[in-house]
Amino acid sequence: MKDCDETCLSRIDRFSFMSGRRSRMKWMDGHCDVLYKMWKSESPISFYECNESLDVTYPAAHSSGVGIQVFAVFVPPEVPRSQFLHAALKQVDLFHERILLHGKKVVPLLSREDLIRLKSSGRMGALLSLEGADPLQGDTAHLRLLYRLGMRQVGLTWNHANEVADGIEEERNGGLTRFGRSLVKEMKRLNMVLDVSHLSVRGFWEVIEEDLPVIASHSNCRAVCSHVRNLGDEQIRALIRREGLIGVTFVPKFVHDDPDQASIEGVLRHIDHICALGGEKCIAFGSDFDGIDQKVPGLEDTGALDGFREILLQRYPEPLVRRWTVENGFQFYFKHL
Ligand SMILES: [Zn+2]
Q1: Which of 50, 184, 226, 253 has the most CB atoms less than 10 A away?
Q2: Which of 288, 219, 284, 286 is nearest to 254 (CA)?
Q3: Half-sphere exposure of 237 toward its Cβ, with a 13 Å CA cutoff?
Q4: Measured in angstroms, how far is the CA atom of residue 314 from the centroid of ligand 1?
Q5: CA of 251 to the centre of ligand 1 (A)
Q6: Is CATH 3.20.20.140 the classification given to domain 25-336?
């Protein structure tokens, strides 16, 4: 593991919003599918009570010190195309109605000022992200409308091709379409974050030098686990160069080539690999809770994050752990929202 350079640590300390006595903020989780699960469920599921249906609930997240949670809006491919936008809007409505609840405990993150207020409020910040631009249905007006409803981040594709680009599971490995390029331009104008998780390799290289903030919200390292959803070393180096974020994820098949062998130790190997490439300032976590059925033992739900943090602290210095679990993510959004 590369040693953390002094200038970086002192800069982080200066911007350390989490070190105040009032703040319990220990974690940022860069990806969960709570909204998708709520939308799919036939009966209402409460975010504010611990329950069997959700991996991420407010009481569990609060007890683990989750200060920022990114909520994905995801419309699965089985939905008829004509219903894509409707399904996304339903999930945005659930975000407002069931998660924010008039901002009593969870506040929307729309700007840098929201992050500043968050540090002393003891509330949880919630960032809305679109996982796959399919609901935009080839119209940038839909992007602008979702932005006005609170969307601040867009993953261009899920695994398949859409109007914007090819997803990672398309063998032809296509890059951005003409609409894709105009969408990126509009995202730049609106100051939105671009998420490259799920994007084709060619699409990745087409957007990585674009002048907008980039993040891989839930992807691991291909050198450690060969799944196509993971990032190659050159992609990781590019994200480091762009001062992006890499959300190390707990999806068993992205942790270990044999998902049944996925372990916390396996998750740490991905962290070590990113550090070996010089990326300790880019590491964050994107659990993918509520988007996965199989779990890494010991990382079953958001309530397990506190114990996972203890394991990290046994292995790495505290300033690095704090950076990975919360500060890198906080600073990234502080810089870009
Ligand atoms: Zn995903």
Answers
A1: 184
A2: 219
A3: 6
A4: 30
A5: 9
A6: yes
